Amino acid sequence: MTTRRGGEATEGNREATAAGGLAAYLAVRRGTFELDVGLVVPRGQVVALLGPNGAGKTTVLHALAGLLRLTDGSVTLRGRVLDDPGRGTFVPPEGRDLGMVFQDYLLFPHLSALDNVAFGLRARGVGRGAARQTAQVWLERVGVLEHAGSRPGQLSGGQAQRVALARALATDPGLVLLDEPLAALDASTRLEVRGELGRHLREFGGSALMVTHDPLDAMVVADRLVVLEGGEVVQDGSPTEVARAPRTEYVARLVGLNLHRGRGKGSVVRLEAGGQLHVADTLEGEVLVAYPPTSVTLHRQHPEGSARNVWQGRVAGLEQHAHTVRAQVSAPDRPHVLADVTPAAVAELDLRLGAAVWLSFKATDTHVYPG
Ligand SMILES: Nc1ncnc2c1ncn2[C@@H]1O[C@H](COP(=O)(O)OP(=O)(O)OP(=O)(O)O)[C@@H](O)[C@H]1O
């Protein structure tokens, strides 16, 4: 084990052990892919793990669950070492103090909802009566007690999801792992379950880690977002921090902002992709500049007015987003810019792929922060 890795793990361990949570340093090699992630989740905290396809989210879950062995690093939960290849420690999945709500981790079809929830407790040696009693409490807590006697086949998606959550939490695990727990639900059920999920995960008494592709699920359910790209953590912060100051193009798209990298000097930022921006905050050196697509206006002629950032490009993409149209404007030696316009403006400006347009936005609509 390298010193750096050992050092990080020890520091994380100390923090999370004090709070009874999860401290992990995960190094996993799978063919050419390398995961290299430090993760501390105190008890009572819900972390959403986000990232593009192939970023390593499932690898993290599987490594924590013991379904995949670490190449290097360690996993400590509630002060107990679960995995540490350097010391030859490995606790198999069934010996870990975990609850799982995986997309493919289905309820047992032949058992009632009550027996599904009681199953995990029975497997941990709890007597039949006590297990069923605890299961009942949990079904009530997640709001599906009236379906206690139903088999999974008789439950709706939302009800089955609640039973799966009750099953995962009933054993009082130190950590619950969730893999896209809301993905299979229809829009209105999702809205309802999304609101409750965060509360249950914060209140059950352990740490929670949820993989999701949906930024809204992450923002509403989680206290903290951890974003992975290429097997590494590229951003870690509260939903508000991440939404306000994305650090990569992927995160910027996720939270719906334009993001450019550049070098600040006074109130001007010279952009890496070419050109320069006028900004309101002055920051010297490597910076990131973010601004919302709603602040960008498109014109057919060179615009009049006070906006300081103006250049010409061509429409390179048009996408319908609820009640607006998101246009991508590209120009040689300039960064791509997203602009939200109304369908009426699309018609009025005769916006179509390849059309020449001027874009403009104000210096005061930009947010500049260290890059
Ligand atoms: N069995 C395997 N053998 C070798 N490489 C693998 C294996 N499974 C996954 N990988 C590689 O590991 C990387 C991370 O995969 P992982 O499934 O963890 O990503 P993910 O973030 O969960 O992606 P998605 O959002 O698509 O589910 C990918 O590049 C993938 O090609």
TrEMBL record:
- Per the database record, which ranges form the ABC transporter domain? 17-255
> What sequence ranges are listed for the domain Mop?
304-370
Cited Gene3D superfamilies: 2.40.50.100, P-loop containing nucleotide triphosphate hydrolases
Q: Which GO terms describe its molecular function?
A: ATP binding
Q: Where are the transmembrane segments?
A: none
What are the alphabetically sorted keywords of the record?
ATP-binding, Cell membrane, Ion transport, Iron, Iron transport, Membrane, Molybdenum, Nucleotide-binding, Transport
Q: Does the keyword Membrane apply?
A: yes
Q: What is this protein called?
A: ATP-binding cassette domain-containing protein
Organism placement in taxonomy: Bacteria, Bacillati, Actinomycetota, Actinomycetes, Micrococcales
